[in-house]
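Reopening: structure tokens for the nicotinamide-adenine-dinucleotide complex, inputs below.
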Amino acid sequence: MAITLQAQEIETRVTAILQAAGSSPQEAAQVAANLVLANLSGHDSHGVGMVPRYVDAVLEGGLKPNTSVGTTLDGGALLTLDGGHGYGQIVGVQAMELAMDRAREHGTCVMALAHAHHLGRIGHFAEMAVARGLVSLHFVNVLSRPIVAPWGGGDGRFGTNPCCIGIPLAGAEPFVLDFATSRVAQGKMRVAHNERKRAPEGLLIDETGHPTTDPGVVVVQQPKGGFGALMPFGEHKGYGLALACELLGGALTGGGTWHRPPDSARAVYNSMLTVLVDPAKLGTAAAFEQEATAFLAWLRQSPAAPGAEGVLIAGEPERAAREARRREGITIDGATWGEILAAGEKLGLKTA
Ligand code: NAD
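Re-run output (same inputs, fresh job):
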């Protein structure tokens, strides 16, 4: 049965589990806060439901608690960093702090972060940058299981490779576009499979490469021993962006790309190429402020399409979800909550 709890209560329980898995109290609290913020933002697929997988990854040795980001190359406005398979919620934040200082100093920073464990919601890093007045672009690859099919291809070859763009807006809340390049999150297919629902047309192919609406093809092993795959979003264009994330996030950072058959390891590794720009140093700050404000005012005058609620900009749905869920609590489905409690029990915690 689904359970609804206040964010603080979930955060406290998750902190205890992560601490039992070997994290310092401070690390456990920071990772837990990041995951709960993903739930508050409406992205349950990247929230506390990840905890059982993180615990398994620690127990397998693929995720290393209490790891700090390391510097591979310091080139001033160019920074190459290594996450050492530490929590992405820790090494990712440390990497952004270093890169934001450089962007303030030089006007820009290109930061390559390799070998982080799961970075969670990439928008978190864009939100850090826009809060300091910086524009931020993020290209990320995922080493976990090749779950997304190339456009025109018949099986999964890469991950859900997220892309994110943060833009600070003068006198207004920022634009934060943050999305997976697959048509749908794999987590959503697991939920649909568990609820015995069909997926909409056009999202999935089966293990023989044929279109299907059965979400189980990416959840459970198929009769021929393989899996189906998710389609990339935006047809050939979204596919192109997914590849750019693999080439920039995986290859250019040195973090590695996917080119081997799937395995059953529980660790999820992300590498991320980040580009930061300080508008104040680009010489266009006044025009940027004026033009962005004028454009958004114009955009918002668009009448709501029939049956639609009107125009939003990226970042607004997450902010609205936070307001609602801080007030009403976070609902977690029974299966996910059971798995979280079981992860704690595995580490010797009492769940009563
Ligand atoms: P999604 O499909 O919900 O899209 C989210 C984006 O679209 C947000 O920027 C949101 O503000 C914007 N948006 C939503 N509705 C809108 C509307 N009506 N008008 C204007 N903008 C709107 O997101 P997703 O693809 O399911 O991704 C969810 C999360 O998963 C992201 O935070 C992403 O970073 C994360 N992710 C992480 C990994 C990883 O390996 N770390 C992999 C994939 C995805």
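The pocket of nicotinamide-adenine-dinucleotide is lined by residues 43, 45-46, 118-123, 142, 160, 162, 164, 176-180, 185, 270, 312-315, 317-318 (CB under 6 Å). The two ends are 16 Å apart (CA to CA). Marking as resolved unless the reporter disagrees.
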